[in-house]
């Protein structure tokens, strides 16, 4: 049976995403946010598209823009942290609002080589480390 969409009048960040991430920058379509888990450099892109749950909920222009923003976030992590691998995923099983994870992975990171979900407990950033990480990300964004 098809799901009945819940319609909102304006874009709102899902409360779980707001609780689990910190704002980094605003792209043309998406909010760029940092996952509050210092185990990995982990970005989350949240398109400001009302009621979008899936990539197919975006129009063609939005999908293209999101692809460009995933590329920008991926290059940001690659340039700032030189990871062994980048993981990019749009799962949304627990948080239905469309969001895309871009995670820098390293051989020997706490979950390597498995996916990051459910492997080890998240390590929230200390206030100082959070400021340092966001400053680093913004320096590379400006470069």
Automatic annotation (TrEMBL):
Gene3D superfamilies: HIT-like. It comes from the Bacteria. GO terms for molecular function: methyltransferase activity. GO terms for biological process: methylation. It is an enzyme of class 2 (transferase). InterPro entries: HIT-like, HIT-like_sf, HIT_Hint. Its EC number is 2.1.1.-. Signal peptide: none annotated. Residues 43-112 form the HIT domain. Keywords: Methyltransferase, Transferase. This is HIT family protein. It comes from Luteimonas notoginsengisoli. The lineage of its organism: Bacteria, Pseudomonadati, Pseudomonadota, Gammaproteobacteria, Lysobacterales.
